[in-house]
Write a structure and sequence with these properties.
Blueprint: H1 3-24, H2 28-44, H3 55-80, H4 89-93, H5 106-124, H6 128-139, H7 144-151, H8 155-172, H9 174-178
Helix pairs in contact: 1-2, 1-3, 1-6, 2-3, 3-7, 6-8, 7-8
């Protein structure tokens, strides 16, 4: 991958990959590291990227594998010597782009931000097997077959997990969903 291809990849898919990384990681610093490592790994694996098919899903799979590896390493370290994990709650709440807030009155923009926080917290509380497909489907906007291929599970399992995730989120987000 030469510099021009890398820049094009970052321009085309960088925002989506960063959003995915920030949803998977605990804080902003981890999300940024995961994002950078994803593109570094993409440079290493350049020959495997099919630019004609769907490089966005390939980049998302790289990010997911890196995140799982980090999580596995963290769990192993916890078994050896427990470490206190720092959770940057402000980074979780301030993860919204200011460009998302259009020229609404102050109250509406505040309510919109609160809705996003509620949705984010509800999804973050889901078990990993439900949370990852939800992020891939709604934030990365990948199709069910792409998610199945990325996660290496059958399409029916992806559909099932999305269905159950929605069922679990419905009571928690009833107020948010009724407003739309």
């Amino acid at each position: 991958m030469d510099r021009a291809q890398l820049e094009q990849c970052i321009e085309d898919y960088g925002k989506d990959i960063y959003a995915f990384c920030s949803r998977m990681a605990v804080n902003r610093q981890e999300a940024e590291e995961l994002y950078q490592d994803t593109f570094l790994k993409a440079v290493e694996l350049d020959s495997k990227i099919d630019y004609e098919n769907n490089p966005k899903s390939y980049l998302a799979s790289i990010a997911m594998r890196l995140w799982k590896n980090r999580k596995r390493k963290y769990a192993w370290r916890q078994r050896i010597a427990a470490m206190k994990q720092f959770i940057d709650e402000e980074a979780l709440k301030d993860g919204d782009d200011e460009t998302d807030v259009q020229e609404n009155p102050v109250e509406e923009s505040w309510l919109e931000k609160e809705r996003k926080i509620q949705v984010r917290e509800a999804v973050a509380a889901l078990d990993e097997k439900y949370r990852i497909p939800v992020y891939l489907y709604y934030t990365m906007q990948l199709s069910v077959p792409e998610i199945a291929r990325l996660m290496k599970i059958p399409e029916g399992t992806v559909k099932n997990r999305l269905y159950h995730a929605r069922s679990m989120l419905r009571p928690k987000l009833e107020v948010v969903w009724n407003e739309f």
